[in-house]
Design goal:
Number of strands: 34
Largest sheet: 8 strands, parallel, barrel
Strand content: 25-35%
Strand order of the largest sheet: 4-5-6-7-8-9-10-11
Distance between the termini: 48 Å
Structural class: alpha+beta
Number of helices: 12
Helix content: 10-25%
């Protein structure tokens, strides 16, 4: 043990000898600066916590995951609240079903878990736009995460809804929330706007009271700590297994000279981008560094304890040197797998925790049962551009120049831009995105025949042929907004003009596509008695496919593999499971929670393949995931 660690032991173990006097029946949670610890009901308290995101786990499984965390020996969980998950449409908040935060907190309370709440308003979390709603971008010059008037007004309106809902759940009010984070890793953001942080502090105090323990979390550098901390908000750090804990906690001490040591995000794993190797963090390193922190009395939250899944369009993206989209699985190499199964890493962590506190007796709940349902063969429904009456029920908007997703108030998924070729193009002619304005990936067809694609940062030109007056269709995919750094103002669609040869393309007909709405309503299976027009004999370009998984009396978890499919989206029984891209990897299967399946009715499968389907048109339901296979770059 390093000498510096001995110093921390001496300082922090002093806390463990303190005994407070508790007024009968009174609940309290506070910081004891003199003895460098938290006090719960007047007694020294150390939390051992794990991060879990209710927005990434079906409501049906919340209790299962929480119980497994409790049985590992955790006494707390850490929870993000994604603003855009609850307020997809400005002014309309949703706290029902899978968004029922109160029910999640209640389940945690029943299970015996305290809560460290992280309500943002920005959360990062590798979540779409870091949790900020895309409708904020309707203000074209808005400066997010700053004292910008439009942003501050929207944040204030949201927190005026959320924080009063959370107040009854505070530990001091009889609930289980012990601490609340203000913003998130603000020191990593370029703005460094103390007025913004002061405004948030005022709002949190207004709605939650003066006695609530508010904190900040920042990366383990002086710059991040300097910009992310604020007087009145307890400063904590985050770091992983490759960090010297003595140095990291010394940095926290420089900004917070007294009080408990806290690592708010101790990284048990890491995220994946499409085309990356699957991230793995060694279980023995995790358990060793966890033990070092607990020995010195530090409070630790493991990020993630279970990652879950980026269902639908909720994955985020990064943009350092280029745009990189986060995969659908948020397994994170966490102690509980994407499907909530205990791992060797979990058992190693439990063995460490046993040394520091009594853990609940009884067996660890087992992995949920899995089933390999086998192959399902799909059939072609039709090309996207031939199904616009169904997929764009509101009809198109005409505009001389392209409009963004945000201008069209279509924030997620796909939008189709249509115009005509201005002249004969008998020779291959370059279609150019001169200002890198395709966000994020565009699938180009002429008269319904796929010609190729444009891609943000990497493919800015492709060749087109055709005749004057031919229909030029450009289907643009939003692959998830940037969730971290200075580029979170991430507009989608065609952000600038496209040039074809020497012509600037204009006179667009723009179709907002509500593919999810149509599929949630039962289409295309509800129309399967009708005979779809026989599509052209081609399986390239954006095409929809359908099939059914016949019931067999089981509704167990499974994993769907789209072997030799290229890239797209898959729905089961109207639920958007997320994006697949086996041609890029590392993720090859998508998690299908058993509760989505029917035991008695045919299970409807719908696939949007954007580039090229295999001749066999089969998908495979397996009883285990494949999230660690790097395929060829595509």
């Amino acid at each position: 043990m390093a000498a510096g660690v001995f110093l921390f032991v001496a300082v922090n173990l002093a806390c463990l000898s303190v005994s407070g006097i508790l007024v009968s029946g009174e609940r309290s949670f506070s910081i004891d600066y003199k003895n460098n610890c938290f006090l719960k009901d007047g007694k020294p308290f150390q939390y051992i916590s794990g991060s879990i995101h209710y927005s990434r786990i079906p409501r049906y499984y919340w209790k299962d995951r929480l119980l497994k965390m409790y049985m590992t020996g955790l006494n707390a969980i850490q929870v993000y609240v994604p603003w855009n998950f609850h307020e997809t449409v400005q002014g309309v908040q949703n706290f029902t079903g899978d968004r029922d935060l109160g029910h999640f907190l209640d389940l945690a309370n029943q299970t015996g878990l305290l809560v460290i709440l992280r309500p943002g308003p920005y959360i990062c979390a590798e979540w779409e736009m870091g949790g900020l709603p895309a409708w904020l971008l309707q203000k074209p010059n808005i400066i997010l995460r700053s004292a910008d008037t439009d942003y501050i007004q929207a944040v204030s309106n949201w927190l005026a809804v959320l924080l009063p809902k959370m107040k009854p759940w505070l530990y001091i009010n009889g609930g289980n929330i012990i601490t609340i984070q203000v913003e998130n890793e603000y020191g990593s953001y370029f703005a460094c706007d103390y007025n913004y942080m002061r405004h948030l502090r005022t709002l949190f105090r207004l709605f939650l009271g003066e006695d609530t323990v508010l904190f900040t979390t920042d990366g383990n550098t002086d710059k991040e700590m300097a910009c992310g901390t604020l007087e009145g908000l307890y400063a904590t750090v985050d770091f992983g297994t490759d960090t010297n804990i003595t140095q990291a906690f010394s940095r926290q001490r420089r900004f917070e000279p007294q009080g408990p040591l806290v690592n708010s995000e101790f990284y048990t794993g890491w995220l994946d981008h499409w085309g990356d190797q699957h991230a793995v963090v060694d279980a023995q390193k995790v358990s060793r560094v966890l033990e070092e922190m607990l020995i010195i009395g530090a409070n630790v939250n493991m990020y993630m304890f279970e990652g879950g899944t980026n269902f639908g369009y909720w994955n985020g993206a990064d943009h350092d040197t280029r745009f990189r989209s986060v995969v659908t699985s948020y397994d994170y190499d966490a102690p509980l797998s994407e499907a909530g199964d205990p791992t060797e890493k979990l058992l190693a962590i439990r063995d460490v925790i046993k040394q520091f506190r009594d853990i609940p007796s009884g067996p660890m709940p087992p992995a949920t049962p899995k089933f390999a349902y086998g192959f399902v063969t799909l059939k072609k429904v039709g090309n996207i551009n031939g199904l616009l009456n169904t997929l764009s029920p509101l009809g198109p908007v005409k505009s001389q120049y392209p409009l963004t997703f945000e201008e069209m108030k279509q924030y997620y998924g796909y939008m189709l831009y249509r115009t005509t070729l201005p002249r004969d193009l008998s020779e291959p002619t370059p279609l150019i995105s001169p200002l890198n304005g395709v966000h994020d990936r565009a699938y180009v067809s002429v008269n319904g025949v796929f010609q190729g694609l444009l891609q943000r940062d990497t493919v800015l030109v492709m060749n087109v042929t055709g005749q004057q007056g031919d229909t030029l269709d450009i289907l643009v995919e939003n692959m998830g907004r940037v969730n971290f750094g200075s580029k979170i103002n991430d507009y989608k669609g065609l952000l600038s003009n496209l040039i074809l040869g020497r012509d600037v393309l204009s006179n667009w007909t723009i179709y907002p596509l509500d593919i999810d709405g149509a599929i949630a309503g039962g289409w295309p299976h509800s129309d399967s008695q009708k005979s779809f027009p026989v599509p052209k004999d081609q399986s390239v370009g954006p095409v929809l496919y359908m099939g059914t998984l016949q019931p067999n009396g089981l509704a167990w978890d499974t994993f769907v593999k789209l072997h030799e499919w290229t890239k797209g989206q898959i729905w089961i029984n109207g639920i958007n499971l997320g994006r697949y891209w086996p041609a890029r990897g590392p993720q090859q299967t998508l998690y299908v929670p058993g509760p989505l399946l029917s035991t008695t009715l045919p299970n409807n499968i719908t696939v949007l393949e954007l580039e090229r389907a295999p001749a066999h048109l089969r998908v495979l339901f397996m009883d285990r995931p494949q999230i660690n296979v790097i395929a060829g770059k595509s």
